[in-house]
Input
Amino acid sequence: MIQLSYGQIFWLFLQLGCIAFGGPAAHLVLFYQRLVKDLHYISEQQYSEVLALAQILPGPTSSQVGIGLGYVLQGYGGALCAWLGFTLPSMLLMTIAAILGLKLSPYLSGDFFHVIQLLVLGIVLWAFWQMLRSFCKFTWQYMLMLLATLLLYVLPHGLNQLLVIVLGGVVGIYYASHSQNPSIQPLLVSSKQQSQAHFYIVLFVLPFILVPVLSALGPNLWLDSFMALYRTASLVFGGGHIILPLLQQEFVTTAWLAQPQFDLGYALEQLMPGPLFSFASYLGALLPLSSSAGGNALFATVVIFLPSFLLMFGLLPYWSKLMQQPHLFRALVGINAAVVGLLLYLVLEMGQKYLSSIWDGIFVLVVIGLLRSKLPIWLSLIGSFAAYYAALTLL
Output
């Protein structure tokens, strides 16, 4: 394997981060084509092993693959450089978008935000349909999805989403069929990395114990924001779009952010290259943590990606043993079906709030049709927004 410097790894992933449009699936193809096929920095086996682990962990799959590839190339420093390069373009763009949006929002009309909300509804509805087709193939999975949606309505906020994910795992272990695990070989890691792996697992669990204890001493917006972002990143299974209901519950339901601001940022994130989790940069820039919007954005970005680092560093050295556990795969099948219920709940909730006329419904269907087409996402979203906003303004 070729030895790369930290600077070379950063520059390589920075280039990828500037052109990584199209979501996680496109990112993974881009990583594979560049690092495996073109440059031969990573072998086919190494790439498939890192990808397999990233797919069963909570968090952003493509970012975790990037972190894992950097780790294979140059250890902990390589993982950090790969993440920073891939994330930096979208982080900067989303931070700037938040600052500009805050200054321009007083001049934007109600129709502007209404069309943005309809765009977000169309995006989430399309993501729901894709995930439904991928993760729900049997009757028990459809039943689990509907049960998860119902529980989100009846259980109190703060507990419902965690309980839904736990329920999905338990049901998956019981109902999912046994499947033969792939033939795998362990990644080559140093004895030092292997001996330190358990330390990162402890660090991953520690905030769930320590932060609530510290928060009990008195209200602290920094601690509350940290835990909201950290908990969200630790519960995201099945796709980046799942962060929407989780972050909405953490920041909008608690009145830290206004719904129009939240929706605007999520719509803008679809136009950006890089990981969807950079939405946290936008949210951080709007949080009243300090007088520095850039510093707040950096804090939010680091926190939401922190679980990914800890999980990859803690589990990658032992991933071959993990892959031999059939219960893990079966639980993941159930969890994926349950998180589709999270999106269904969000679709129903957003539909009740945002659809005010039959024309709104038609517009959402048009957005979905454009997303299904081969047109670039940015062109589909900007074009449909401009057309419907102009129609509402003129009529």
Summary: DSSP finds 17 helices and no strands in the chain.
